[in-house]
Design a protein that fits this description.
This protein has four helices and no strands. It is mostly helical and about 140 residues long. Helix 1 runs antiparallel to helix 2, helix 2 runs antiparallel to helix 3 and helix 2 runs parallel beside helix 4. The protein is elongated. The termini are close together.
């Protein structure tokens, strides 16, 4: 995909964002596989879809239909999962039973909030990449 100057996001930036997302996903999976983090079905969905969206960013093309459809369905599903996990933290806050984990950087409430931000940013990038004018 050649950059013709009319694109709002250069292809190199999309490739970089996609590559970083895949690396983040692989890093998150390696943390679980190494035993440093507990097995969490919410987290598994989020980290998997972050990686899938990273791969889809590598294939996003102007006027495409398949990549946006796959991105929106998988990203929407993962966002709902992340929102459910994050809301569980808000329920604990409201009941007065909330506390961050001893290792706060592995706290599910913080990680699900970060996952929601990452997923929305990835969906916005896919949208921007696929809705550009065909030349």
């Amino acid at each position: 995909m050649a950059h013709n100057g009319t694109l709002t996001i250069p292809p190199k930036a999309l490739y970089l964002a996609g590559g970083v997302a895949v690396l983040v996903s692989l890093l998150a999976w390696s943390v679980e596989w190494s035993g440093l983090a507990y097995v969490c079905p919410y987290c598994r969905v989020q980290r998997t879809v972050i990686g899938v969206l990273g791969v889809l960013l590598l294939f996003a093309r102007p006027g495409g239909l398949v990549v946006p459809w796959l991105a929106y369905t998988s990203g929407g599903f993962a966002f709902v999962v992340a929102a459910m996990q994050h809301f569980n933290g808000w329920k604990r806050i409201s009941s007065g039973a909330f506390s961050l984990n001893a290792q706060w950087y592995f706290d599910p409430w913080l990680l699900s909030g970060c996952a929601m931000l990452i997923l929305v940013a990835q969906l916005m990038l896919v949208n921007a990449a696929c809705r550009r004018a065909l030349r």
